[in-house]
Amino acid sequence: MNFEVEHELHKRRMSKNIGLGVVLVTFVALIFGLTVVKVTDGNVSSAIAGAASNE
Amino acid sequence: MSDTTFTKDEFDAEAEISDYIALLKPRVMILVVFTALVGIIAAPVDVHPFTILVSIIFIALGGGASGALNMWYESDIDSLMRRTRNRPIPAGKIKSDEAKAFGFALAGISVFMLGLAANWFAAVFLLFTIFFYVAIYTIWLKRWTPQNIVIGGAAGAFPPMIGWAVATSGISLESVLMFSLIFLWTPPHFWALALFMRDDYENARVPMLTVTHGRRSTRNHIFFYTILLALFAFFTSFTALGGWVYLGTSILLNSIFVVMAFKIWMRGDRQAEGDNFRVERRFFRYSLIYLFLQFGSILVDNGLGTNFSWGFL
Q1: Which of A44, B48, B76, B174 is such that its CA lies 20 to 30 A from the CA of B302?
Q2: Is B9 in the A-facing interface, judged by CB distances under 8 Å?
Q3: Domain B17-170: homologous superfamily in CATH
Q4: Burial of A9 from C-beta contacts in 10 A (0-12 / 13-18 / 19+)
Q5: From the list B17, B48, B57, which residue is nearest A19 (CB)?
Q6: Looking at this predicted complex, what is its ipTM?
């Protein structure tokens, strides 16, 4: 049985792969955001301002 | 195995991303997200909005893990019931073992991440909730006793307590009150469903109240529990959780709920069959709106600052 590139199965697998990719990118973004919030003790803007004034 | 050995059935049965989402019981997840959010916001401790977002996502994922593990264990009875036979496992889209692995992996990730994002008390609470739903309710109670929904309902009632724990790292009267609201709401909600699902539970040999004690008794129970819920919800107005908006909402919502339960109590199955369980279906749909509005009123009171500072408790 020969597959065409645009077989419905490929589309389905593509949507699954894209979905998984979105989940992984979101997970990384959440970890990054959480790290920033924890490190700056929830006060991101003043932490950035403090870092700039120390330079 | 090469692709050339696939049959058409295997193509049709291969899972899509929507099947994995269905495994998480997204409608239940909405309830979990909303009540947990109310728990966090109602707590007297400010939490950074991003921490709230991350905590809610992983509490929801923990709820989803419970749903996947529930579908894994119940795939045999799901295939026997009209309501559940199109779920991913009985439909042949996802293998039972795959759902089990998916559920356990999500449970681990959600608990660990909630511990990192919020605190380990909330994380252990989430783990206990997943354990309660899967082991106590799904594996033990559901196939053993008609009280399955009554006791097992605790699993669905924990999310606002977890939300409260995210903010405070503990338990207090307010979080127990929120738990109790959902705990008392669950039985009439599911018994109404059992009434209009007719013989689904009987075919699957699940000892729901309709099967073990009959449909008349189930109607009596719905009415009794709804009165109990209404009284509890009303008197909660005068606790630390209450406020003007909660009080007004509570009077309105519970009056309607009791009237609807009274209608269920007054009629029999012959009448219900005649109109395709119209009253029971309306009661079920209204119960969902009821819970969202009752919990929503707690949020509104918090936002407007209309809480009763003179709460008796």
Answers
A1: A44
A2: no
A3: UbiA prenyltransferase (1.10.357.140)
A4: middle
A5: B17
A6: 0.79
